[in-house]
């Protein structure tokens, strides 16, 4: 890929992520964020809410696990124990009707579901498509929902897709968040052809989960966006949350642009070559060995020259004392 093509790809990917986080032009009506106990989706959700407040969007927080109302949410709805129909009626009751004047812009809404796991019961899972359609009446409404992938899914009837498959099919954009520190350790092991380390639940260790997030601030975003044409766009990013009290937002970059994920440079390759002297053998040749190899006369070297008389290519062989001459083989 030419440098200009790489720069174009980088700019296009970053602008696309900025468009999704800013909820601009209804880029993604339904955004699904898949997280685990090892890496929460909190940093990404807080960034989306802060950008929505800058765009003067009304934030509606639908709580299924959160006890207290978030600071930036304007409307807080407790959804625990309510049916999907009753919940949809309560959510839409907070929407203001669109203005009759076509010149004025309609009010934008951001719906935040802190978790969708309680809604994925055998009775409610088939009703989720109609539920999402009812709470997204206009293009000015966007929905961001969190799904915990490490929570066991309930037993569903046969031929019913599991909740992660159904939600991923309904969503226009899917984010899988993971720890940056875990990704760095896995990349280091892969570059050295070592077994990939396992963290958290996959490590099989009992006790409290201890992560590495404090050593490497930031999260990895595995994005998959479905365009209206049906073509999917996949990319990996690093989102570093802003410090407390900072006026600027979070910083975003491609995973490939991170210094620890960059391709090895010429200095790194020379450094690896310099380490060959510390091994028990070396594949290189010294100057004396190179000259000795050039002075070796290969077998049948005289046969490569034209000796005249159309005899080029004949094999010259001198018999030794240990050779047993057989007249019958010579006649053949």
UniProtKB/TrEMBL annotation:
Functional pathway: tRNA modification; 5-methoxycarbonylmethyl-2-thiouridine-tRNA biosynthesis
Subcellular location: Cytoplasm; Nucleus
Entry's Gene Ontology cellular component terms: cytosol; elongator holoenzyme complex; nucleus
Keyword ATP-binding attached: no
GO biological process, one term: tRNA wobble uridine modification
GO MF annotation, one: tRNA binding
Acidic residues bias locations: 321-332
Record bears the keyword Nucleus: yes
Entry-linked CDD domains: Elp5
Keywords, ordered alphabetically: Cytoplasm, Nucleus, tRNA processing
Region annotation (Disordered) ranges: 313-332
UniProt cross-references to PANTHER family, sorted A to Z: ELONGATOR COMPLEX PROTEIN 5 (PTHR15641:SF1)
Family according to the record: Belongs to the ELP5 family.
Protein name: Elongator complex protein 5
Organism expressing this protein natively: Cercophora newfieldiana
Highest classification ranks of the organism: Eukaryota, Fungi, Dikarya, Ascomycota, Pezizomycotina
